[in-house]
Amino acid sequence: MTLYGSIEAGGTKFVLGVGDGSKLVQRYRFDTTTPDAAVSEIVAFFKQYELAGIGIGAFGPVDVNPASPKYGTILNTPKVGWQNFDLLGALKAQLNVPMKITTDVNVACYGEWQEGAAKGKQNVIYLTVGTGIGAGVINQGHFFLGRAHTEVGHIFLQKHPDDHYEGHCPYHGDNCAEGLAAGPAIQGRFPAGAASLAEDDPFWAIEADYIAQLCLDLTLSLAPDVIIVGGGVSKQTQLFPLIRQAFAAKLNGYVDVPALNDYIVPVALGDNSGVTGALLLAEEAAREA
Amino acid sequence: MTLYGSIEAGGTKFVLGVGDGSKLVQRYRFDTTTPDAAVSEIVAFFKQYELAGIGIGAFGPVDVNPASPKYGTILNTPKVGWQNFDLLGALKAQLNVPMKITTDVNVACYGEWQEGAAKGKQNVIYLTVGTGIGAGVINQGHFFLGRAHTEVGHIFLQKHPDDHYEGHCPYHGDNCAEGLAAGPAIQGRFPAGAASLAEDDPFWAIEADYIAQLCLDLTLSLAPDVIIVGGGVSKQTQLFPLIRQAFAAKLNGYVDVPALNDYIVPVALGDNSGVTGALLLAEEAAREA
């Protein structure tokens, strides 16, 4: 039995895992405070095991270019104390294990690609709509990377005519997807949260419109084979038919896309897309070491 | 002296070139009518020369995946007679010369990357704003390709509050970039065309706003090192400061981008981005043959 480690480094919590292959056998969570505290927790937890590799999915912005001297460094984040913190370097200094790091959404994308809803595809988008909005992108079988990783949650959207919410994004107000459609923006409209809304509440058509607009923009700019929608908001499964319907109306046949039931789909791995992908990334790190 | 051939296959005209390396020595144009007529013109013109390779930039949608059995085939175009026409196959049947084909905007992107405004960059977008709107994309030094090439001209934009134009896109009305900001949409507002407008006409701020929105979306989804803006509308050089200003206001510091004077830039090769890129692609075809 070969053990691998996974780290899901989030802005509010860290989730560590130990897996036999991609099968999780142990999990440990702690709240995100300072980088030093996080590193201590991670090192203490993983030192209990003999690991062949560690895969990390981190909140961004983070340098995920293996060729960069700053690979594994958290970049210009508003998160106090984390700016320019070399997370990968700090872990490598204390754990003698091969490691790879990418974004939190990229590991989820990787998990869904290898073992979930995107098996056998080459161009995959994992779109999370939860506390924030973001996307992991696999293009021709590799993580997409330009000058940096994508930040698609802040793409500007057309505001729905029936929506009078002032928006939640500190940078873009009600202009961007995250400001209009992420969990906190839903809670901004309905303080009791999404769970308090009936399945047929008319708000879901508005939410679906926003997600459909974002899927449209991603279709036109990244041309994926499939868009997997995950994150807390996507647990409202009544959204999917509404998203597909709004997407079809907007695209209006301009480009060919796969049948929409196979194109805009929910995650297949539930809450485990990220940990699965991080464990697979750990295996990759071990193979390449 | 080694001669190469270039084909810019457009919806209204074809432009053929013969170059000594990437230096154009002969050019020939004809109107786009039927596929058969185009192939006859191309074959007759190129048979006058001993060519080492031919590079083709074609209007889309076109299959530009070298691994695809339909590589070089015009796909689902509204252009009568051209649907599913195997352009590359038809040319190969009559010209015994190594050939490569990509989109018209990709060859322009390639030209600007190798010899123009994007020298030394790895992630390049060439955005044309002319008769239509589209982008050529080079990612990590290779043409970006997902399930298909991008179609960014149809990304949805927020309509400017001072703009009351009904939009020009037959698919998306006033919702998409092309419907709001391409040449025909300008002419729809001002029948005498863009050239009739003063440099300080307030419309240019609206046009700049649309191009800035598109640059913002592309920044967030494709993370380029540079966005080169070409096409007829970009000859209005007063647009560039307005685009950069609107872009900065919208992005609002959310992600780091290069200094805007180096990030959103005009073409360096004038009207020759496409032919330069096609000749370079011809060289590449010859090298790989």
Task: Describe, in plain words, how this protein is organized in 3D.
Two copies of one chain form a homodimer. With 289 residues, the first copy, chain A, is of the alpha/beta class. Chain A has two domains: 3-107 and 271-288, ATPase, nucleotide binding domain (Nucleotidyltransferase, domain 5, 2-Layer Sandwich); 119-267, ATPase, nucleotide binding domain (Nucleotidyltransferase, domain 5, 2-Layer Sandwich), CATH 3.30.420. In chain A, 33% of the residues lie in helices and 21% in strands. Chain A is built from nine helices and ten strands. Chain A has helices at residues 35-46, 87-92, 104-115, 177-181, 183-189, 203-222, 239-251, 260-263, 273-288; strands spanning 3-9, 13-20, 23-31, 51-58, 99-103, 124-129, 133-139, 142-143, 226-230, 264-266. In chain A, strands 3-2-1-4-5 form a five-stranded mixed sheet. In chain A, helix 2 (87-92) links the parallel strand 4 and strand 5 (99-103). Chain A is globular. The interface between A and B is large, with 40 and 41 residues. Chains A, B: Its EC number is 2.7.1.4. Chains A, B: Belongs to the ROK (NagC/XylR) family.
